[in-house]
Structures are given as structure tokens and as C-alpha cells.
Write a structure and sequence with these properties.
5-stranded parallel β-sheet
Length: about 300
């Protein structure tokens, strides 16, 4: 792909995520920004999966537009693979979950794992109170076509699942329990499994808040992640409990570093297919978690019928 001297980017959907992305992009000489949809833009930034449906994203890629997703870009692994194939066939770039994939904390975090010795426990948490519910259930309400969108697995579970599979892969012997609201939305869940000799536990929720940090524990020490939803700080502890900061970034620095990485892929300096591997694994693990409850994709993701039909 020939390198472009100045790239035009349309930032859609005015929300907190897109506003911070605009702030990070301001002042770049290699980027011309436009707010809102634009047929003239080289790159389309979509804050999340619900910004456009599958058909619309595929049309953009077919037209040769590069697409960046702030979070997950599809509801299931099959849909993301289909979008990636469309992008490859039309010379476009598809980058997914850029706010974790290209977060500047991820590389030093992965490097620091070797200092922990054998990993024995991985505990990842993402709980943020989002709505009140009158009652909860341990099984979904049928029929699936009436289940509301915006489930906790997709919106909070991915905060935990993406870094897990990016750093370690998909656990074995998975077991998942989910909690549903009275009208059928998945509201919280716990997932357990094993990665070699390490126990894995993921806890996510949209009906309760928590400030418990995530931990990766080894025989020689541990890594503490203050907030997976807003990954900016990681702290090391040795076996005796001595604390040492590993990395710490401002919110603005994180967004700027993520954009730098994205631009390298858009300009053709790196192969964009490589970072998609973790996103596909994330969706594969989510598909497996859903299977424990015999769930349709629409139970746990902001639903667009085009995504479900793309499998």
C-alpha cells in the first residue's frame, strides 16, 4: 500500500470515546479530521460496534475506506472474519478494539509477565453500575427475539477477555455463569477456567460497581492493574510485597499512542491482519461462553440483524 501524505478521517458518533479520540488527533500534520459521516474521508472511526450495522461497515470496506473500531467491531468471530476478508479484497484496513490492542500499557505488561515466574492465578474484573433492575434470573427469558440489546458480556466482559487472550490465549475447561435482568438482558457474569497451571477468573457486571483491581499472580510476584476499563497504570509487586510502578500514562497519552499505532497500519508500514488475531480469539471465547446458556448473539451484544446473518 502506498503511503499517503495526509489522511482524512471522519469521526462518527459524538460520545466520550470519540471526543477523546478527536483530542488526541488534534494538531497532527498527517491527519485531517472531520466530525460526522463523510463520503470523502479515507478513514472512518467508529467508537463501537453499534455505530453502524454489518452491511454498512462492509460497504465502507468494499469502497476502499479504512475502518477503525474503538472497541469490538463485530458480535461474533464469523462476522469479524467476514469483514476482514472484505477489507483484504478491496485494499482497505480494518482495525478493531484499538483502545486495548494499541494501548501503550499492553507491551510492557506482556514483557513483565516473564518476571513473575510460573503464573498461578489470573483475576480480571470489570464492573460498572449502568442500570437498575427489579430482579435477576439465572436463565434467559425466551423468546430470544425479545431480548434487549446492550448486554454485560459484550460491553464489560470484553474488557477482561481481550487482554486475557492477547496475553495468554483462550483458557481451557471454561465454566460460565450469567445473571439476567427480569426482561432478559444479560447483566453480569463470572467465567472460570485454566491456562496450564494457572487458575483464571473473570468477573463482569453492569448492575454493580467495583473498584477491585485485576491481578496476575506468579510464584515470584504479581502485576496489579488498577482499572481494566481505562487501562493506564500497572504496578509490580515482588514476592515480599514490595511495590514498584511498571507503567503509568495519562488519558491523553494513551489515546495519542493508540493513534500513532493506528496510523502506522493505515500507512501500510505494518500488516493490519496481525492485531485482528486477538479480537477474533476474544469473540471465539465469547461464543463459547454464550454456549453455556444456549444464547443467541443478540442476547449479549447490541443487536443488528446483519451481524447475526453474517455467521
Amino acid at each position: 500500500m502506498a503511503e499517503m501524505t495526509r489522511i482524512s478521517m471522519a469521526v462518527t458518533a459524538a460520545n466520550k470515546k470519540s471526543r477523546s479520540f478527536l483530542e488526541a488527533a488534534a494538531g497532527r500534520k498527517d491527519l485531517y479530521l472531520m466530525e460526522g459521516p463523510s463520503e470523502e474521508a479515507d478513514v472512518i472511526y467508529l467508537p463501537d460496534y453499534s455505530s453502524l450495522d454489518f452491511r454498512q461497515v462492509r460497504e465502507l470496506l468494499t469502497a476502499g475506506k479504512h475502518v477503525l473500531f474503538g472497541t469490538m467491531g463485530a458480535a461474533d468471530a464469523g462476522s469479524l472474519k467476514a469483514l476482514a476478508q472484505t477489507a483484504a479484497e478491496h485494499g482497505a484496513v480494518l482495525l478493531d478494539h484499538i483502545h486495548l490492542a494499541f494501548n501503550p500499557c499492553m507491551a510492557p505488561l506482556k514483557t513483565a509477565l516473564s518476571c513473575l515466574g510460573p503464573i498461578r492465578r489470573i483475576r480480571l474484573y470489570s464492573c460498572e453500575y449502568a442500570f437498575c433492575c427489579k430482579g435477576v434470573r439465572t436463565s434467559p427469558v425466551l423468546p430470544f427475539t425479545h431480548v434487549p440489546p446492550g448486554g454485560a458480556l459484550f460491553q464489560r466482559g470484553t474488557d477482561c477477555i481481550y487482554p486475557l487472550v492477547h496475553l495468554f490465549g483462550i483458557p481451557q475447561q471454561l465454566d460460565a455463569q450469567m445473571v439476567f435482568t427480569e426482561n432478559g438482558m444479560d447483566a453480569a457474569g463470572t467465567v472460570r477456567g485454566y491456562l496450564g497451571g494457572a487458575q483464571v477468573e473473570i468477573v463482569y457486571s453492569k448492575i454493580s460497581g467495583s473498584h477491585v483491581p485485576s491481578l496476575i499472580e506468579g510464584e515470584r510476584g504479581s502485576l496489579l492493574i488498577r482499572d481494566l476499563r481505562n487501562l493506564r497504570e500497572v504496578t509490580c509487586f515482588d514476592r515480599s510485597g514490595v511495590e514498584e510502578p511498571l507503567v503509568s500514562f495519562s488519558h491523553k497519552a494513551c489515546r495519542a499512542a493508540e493513534l500513532d499505532r493506528c496510523m502506522a497500519f493505515i500507512k501500510g508500514k505494518n500488516d493490519w491482519r496481525r492485531p485482528l488475531a486477538s479480537s477474533i480469539q476474544t469473540l471465539q471465547m465469547m461464543d463459547e461462553i454464550r454456549s453455556f446458556q444456549n444464547l443467541d448473539v443478540e442476547n449479549t451484544a447490541p443487536s443488528h440483524p446483519h451481524y447475526a446473518s453474517a455467521i
